[in-house]
Amino acid sequence: MKVTAKPSTRQILPDERGRFGKFGGRYVPETLMPALDQLEHEYLKAKEDKDFKKELNYYLREYVGRPSPLYFAERLTRELGGAKIYLKREDLNHTGAHKINNTMGQVLLARRMGKKRIIAETGAGQHGVATATAAAMFGLECEVYMGEEDMHRQSLNVFRMKLLGTKVIPVKTGSRTLKDATNEALRDWMASVKYTHYIIGSVVGPHPYPMMVRDFQCIIGEETREQILEKEGRLPDYLLACVGGGSNSIGLFHPFLGDTTVKMIGVEAGGIGLGVGEHAATLSYGKVGILHGSLSYVLQDEDGQTSPVHSMSAGLDYPGVGPEHSYLKETGRAQYVSVTDQEALEAFQRCARSEGIIPALEAAHALYYTTKFAPTLGKEKLVVVCLSGTGDKDAFQVADKLGVKI
Amino acid sequence: MNRIDQKFQELRRRKEPAFIPFITAGDPDLETTRGLVLELERRGADIIELGIPFSDPIADGPIIQASYYRALSKGLKVSQVFECVKGLRKETDIPIVAMVSYSLVFKGTPENFVARAKEAGLDGATIPDLPIEESDAVHLAAKEKDFKIVCFVAPTTTPERMSRIAKGTQGFLYYIAVVGITGVRDALPPDMRENIQKLKGMTDKPIALGFGVSTPEQARVVGQVADGVIVGSAIVKELERYVDRPATERIKAVGEFTSRLVAGAKGRL
Questions:
Q1: Is 0.90 topped by the overall pTM?
Q2: Contacts of A365 (CB under 8 A, 6+ apart)
Q3: Annotated catalytic residue: which of B27, B41, B49, B123?
Q4: Residue A71 DSSP code
Q5: Which terminus has fewer CB within 10 Å in chain B: N or C?
Q6: Contacts of B128 in chain A (CB under 8 A)
Q7: ipTM exceeding 0.90?
Q8: Given an 8 Å threshold on Cβ–Cβ distance, is A17 in contact with B133?
Q9: pLDDT tens digits, one per residue of B169-217
C-alpha cells in the first residue's frame, strides 16, 4: 500500500451520540443540553465550510506560525544510541504550546455563533493564555477559571493572561486545581450559556468537545505526517506524547490511527508514587467512570468520588482523561505508561543541555520515556515525540525544585 | 403504590402543592440528617429531597457544594447514607427522593444503585447530570423496582425535548426555574408561569419547581402555579448558620425556618 501525506483511513468515531466505543457521551445538566446540541450543529457546519477552514488556516499560518518544525534531535539521538528521534516543535507556536491550535478554532466558531463572551478553565495556564490571546485578537470578553494552587505554581501565566485583558478568577473549592476550575467554568456556563462560549482546553468534557478539540489539534499529526514523509520517505514507527486530558497526544496520534505499523505511546504523570493522591496516571491506574460530562477512565474511589491527584506538572494534574484515549487503550491501539515527577525533571534538564530546548514539564514526561525507550530500538527506527510546549513557564518551579534561588 | 405517587394523590385531593425541602445527607453529620427529616415532616414537608454528597457537583451552587464538602470531609460513604434512610424508615413514611450525581450511580452499575436505594427505603432519585438521552439504563432498572427517576426540564429546554422528558419522568417532573446553578436569588424568572403551563399541556404528572426559591413569599407565588415547591440552598444555608451549634438547636432552627416556607407554599401566610 502506498503511503500518502493524507491520512489513509480517517476514523469515523465518535458516533452521532458522541461515543468512542462505550466511552464519551454527554452527562451534563439539562440546562446545557440545548447549548451542546447547538454547538455540535454549528461545529459540523463550520467543518464543512471552505471559508471557515480558509480563515482558520490563515490565522494558524500568519498568527500562530504554523507549520511547526519536525526537528531531528541529532544530539539526543546520538547520546541515546538507538532510534532516530524527531521532535514536533509545538513549543514554537505563538504563546508557546499546542493549546492555541484549539483556541483559534473555537474562538472563530464562537464568532460564527454570535457569542460575545468567552470562558475557559486552565491548569498550567497554557490553555488560559491561548484562550486569552485568541479572545484579545478578536476583541472578545474573556474570563478564565484557575485553581488557586495552580495560580501559585504558574504565576507567570496568570500575569500574561491579565496583560492580554483577561480576568482570571481564582477557584478556591476542592483541590484548587484543574478539576475544580473545570467545575466552576461549567457552572458559569450553566448560567451564561445564552451569550457565552466555553472553550474547553482538552479532549475531555461532554460531546462534541472531545471530537471538536481533537479535530483542531489534528493539525499536529497531519503536519508530522507530511514532514516525516518528506524527510524520511516513510511513516514513523512510534509516536510519543504526554497525556493529561490528552489533547496534544490525540492531535499527534489521530491522523495515524489507520496506519497499523505506527505504534503510539501516551505518557502519564506518575507523580511521586502509586498511592491515592500521589499521581495523575488515569489510564494506568484508574477505572471506568464519569467525570465532567463524559464516560472515560477516572481516578475515583469505590463510591465514585473523585480521588485527589498529584503531578508537579499543573497541565497533567487531572483525575480524568479524554474518552478517545480510553477507547484507544481498551482496543489496544495505543499503550499508556507513566513517568514520575523526578524522572520528568531529569528529562527537562537533559533536553535543555543536549538540544538547547527547554521543554514544558508536561512534555518532559514524554521525553523521559523516550530516553529509556529509544535505546531499546534499532538505529533504523523512527520515533516522533510531541514537544507540546515550552518550559519557560516552568522555570521558577524547576529552580525551586533544584534548590536554586532566582 | 410508590410513596411519591400516593403523596401527590393525597395533595391533589386537598388541592395543595407539595412542599419539598432539600437537605444534604451527612451535613454536618448523619445524626442531624435523621433528626432533620423527622423535624421537617413535623413542620409540614410533604417529600424530602436528600442530597447524596458528590466531590464534583456541576449543577450545584456554592452553598450546596459547601454542604457536600462538609459531609465528605468526614469520610461519608454512600452506604452510610443508605443505612441512615433504612433507620429512618422505622420512624417515618414520608417520601424521600435522593439527589445524586450519575458518577455515583454509574460506579456500582445503575441496577445495583437502584436496588440498594430501594432496599434502603428511598422512593426515587433525581440525577441532575443525567440527560434523558443517557438515561435508558437507569430508567429500566428503576421501572422494575417501582423506583421513580425524576427528570428535569430547564428554561433552555426546547419544546421537542420538553415533551420527551415529560414522557420519561416518573413520580413528578422537576422544573428548573432559572438558567444556572442552584442558589438563593432575589427574583423569580418571568418565563416560569408560561413554561409550567406548557408542561401541563404535555403531561398529567405533577410538576415541581426548584432552583432559586428561597423566601416564603416566593414559595407562595410558586405554589400557585406548580404542583410542588422545592427549596434547597436557602434551607442548607440556614443549617450552615448553626453548623457549630449542638444538633438539637440546629434542627430546631431549620425546622422553624421551614415552617414559614411551608406556610408560604400552601398559601397560609
A1: yes
A2: A242, A267, A268, A269, A313, A316, A339, A343, A344, A347
A3: B49
A4: E
A5: N
A6: 29
A7: yes
A8: yes
A9: 999 999 999 888 777 777 788 889 999 999 999 999 999 999 989 999 9
